[in-house]
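Morning F.,

Quick status update on the modeling queue. The single chain you submitted on Monday has been processed. Sequence for confirmation:
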Amino acid sequence: MPSKKLDFKAGQYVVYPTQGVGKLVRVEEQTVGGQKIKMLVIDFERNHMTLRVPVERAEISGLRPLTSVKKMDEAIASAKGKAGAKRMIWARRAAQYEENINSGDPMKLAEVVRDLQRRNPSDTMTFSARQLYLRALERMAQEFAVLHKIDLDAASEKIEDILGVPKEIDLNAVDSDDEDDEDLSDDDE
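C-alpha cells below.
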C-alpha cells in the first residue's frame, strides 16, 4: 500500500540517514532488469560519493528534506540537557549511539552529542566515544551549516558554543590506564 510520496526537486539539499546531507543533483530514468525506474541522484560532496535512490523507495530508505531551523534549534537545546545516566555496558550503549547516528534524526543525533560531550576541560574520553561524538556532531553540523548558510567547521564550532563545550578541551586526550584507576577510586568514594 503506497503512502504519501515525497516531493524532491533538483538542487535541493536532502538527508540520507546513513550518509548525512547531500544535494539532489537530478532525477533520471534508468533501465534495470528491463524496467524503467526513476532515480534520485544525490551527491555527497564531503564523502566523494554519488547515491542513486529509486523514487518509489525514497521514503522507505529514510530520505528526507532538511529539517526546519526551529526543529534544529530544538535538537540543539535538547543536547544542552543533562546526559542520560545509562547503566548498560559500553558495547550496547555504543551500538545504540551508532543506531541513533544512522537514523539521521536531529533529535537522536542531539541525544548522542548530549550524552558524549565533555562538560569541562579535565574530562577525558575513550577513543570510541570520541569517534561517536564527532560523527554525531558532524551530522548535526552538516544540516545546521546548510540551514544557516555557513561552512561545516563554523557550524560545528557554533553548535559547541551553544552547548557550552569548553574551548580548551583537547579532543585527542583519551583515558589512559592510570587515569582509569584514579577515576574509579574517586567515583567509588
